[in-house]
Amino acid sequence: MIDQLSFVPLPGFSSPHVQTILGTFNRTGKAPPSTQLHVSLEDGDSLCCELSTPSSWTNTQKTIVMIHGLGGSHNSSYMIRLSRKFYQIGYRVLRINLRGCGSGKHLARLPYHGGVSHDVRRVIQAIKKQTPLSPLILIGFSLGGNIALKLAGESKDHQDSLVDHTIAVCPPIDLTRTLQMISHSSNRFYHNYYLKQLRPIAKQWIPGKLMASMYEFDNHVTAQAWGFKDADDYYQQASSCFLLPDMQASCQILFAMDDPFIDYKSVLERPLSPSIKVSLSQYGGHMGFVGWSGRKHSYFWLDHLLHKWIAATKCEP
C-alpha cells in the first residue's frame, strides 16, 4: 500500500538541502535520563545501548527501539529529540548504538555496516528477555532504516521477528543506487561529510591509506572486515529492497520524494508485501520534515507523524 502525505514545509524552507540540515543536524534540548544496556554479540564484540524508562511505565506498555544512521549514535540530534518526546509521552525508549558508536565506542573490533540486522536482533532478544510482555516498535533512521527492514524481511513470521511493528524513515533500501546518488557532484557536501565520519574507522583497518570515497571505504574496509567479495557484493547482500516482496512482518516506510540521495522510486519498482505500507511526501529532504505539525510552537512534523503511527499500532499480546 502506498499513500501520499500532506507535509507542508515552513515558508522559505522547502529546499531539500535546508530540510536535511535542519532535521538532521539541528540539536534541541537534552536526552532523557538513561541507563546502559550492554549486549554481547556472537563474535565477541559488544554493543552499549541507552535505555530510558519513565517512572510511570509498566512492563505491558510499548517499548520504542531506535537505530541511528551512518555516522550517528544515541547522541545524534534526531535520536535525542525523539527519545525525549517518546519518554515524555510515557514510552520506554531504547537507543541502539551500532558497533563502535556512542557509549559503545571501544567495545567492538568490527565496524558496523548497513546490513547488521543480526546485531539488532541480539539487542531485541536481550530487551525482550527483560520484559517479554512489552510490545516492541522498531524505528530505523536512514541507514538504520535499511537495517530494520532487513531484520523484518529475514523474520519468518510475526512471532519470529520479536518486533510488533517496524518503521523505517528515509531508508536506503537499495545501497547501490544510494551510493551512486550520494557520489554525484551535486551531493559532494553529504558525501564528504559521511566520508569524514568513516575515515577514523578506515585508519584502524588500513593505516596510512586515505580513503577517497565512500565506495572505496566499503570496498576495502567493509568488504574486508565482513568477508564480502567487494563493495558491490556487500550492497547486494545488505540491501533490504530484495526482501520487500515476501516480507511477513508489519512495516511502515517513509520517503521524501525530494531526498537528495535516497531514491524513493526504488520501492516502486518491485512488488510489495501486503504487510508493508509506504508513505511518500513531496518535500522533506533527508530526514528533515521541518514544517507545520498542527501544534503551536512545534515544527518537527516527523516527530508527530511517528507518534501517530506508534499510537495507532495495535500490538498482539
Give the topology, please.
Elements: E1 2-5, H1 16-25, E2 35-40, E3 46-52, E4 63-67, H2 77-89, E5 92-96, H3 117-130, E6 136-141, H4 143-154, H5 158-161, E7 165-169, H6 175-182, H7 188-205, H8 214-226, H9 231-238, E8 251-256, E9 276-281, H10 301-312
What does this structure look like?
It is globular, with a radius of gyration of 18 Å. It has a nine-stranded mixed beta sheet with strand order 1-9-8-7-6-4-5-3-2, with helices on both faces. 35% of the residues lie in helices and 16% in strands. α7 (188-205) packs parallel to α8. It has helices at residues 16-25, 77-89, 117-130, 143-154, 158-161, 175-182, 188-205, 214-226, 231-238, 301-312, and strands at residues 2-5, 35-40, 46-52, 63-67, 92-96, 136-141, 165-169, 251-256, 276-281. The protein has 317 residues and is an alpha/beta fold.
Short description:
The chain has 317 residues and is an alpha/beta fold. It is built from ten helices and nine strands. Strands 1-9-8-7-6-4-5-3-2 form a nine-stranded mixed sheet, with helices on both faces.
Spatial order of strands in the largest sheet: 1-9-8-7-6-4-5-3-2
Structural class: alpha/beta
Shape: globular
* Terminus-to-terminus distance: 25 Å
| H/I helix tally | 10
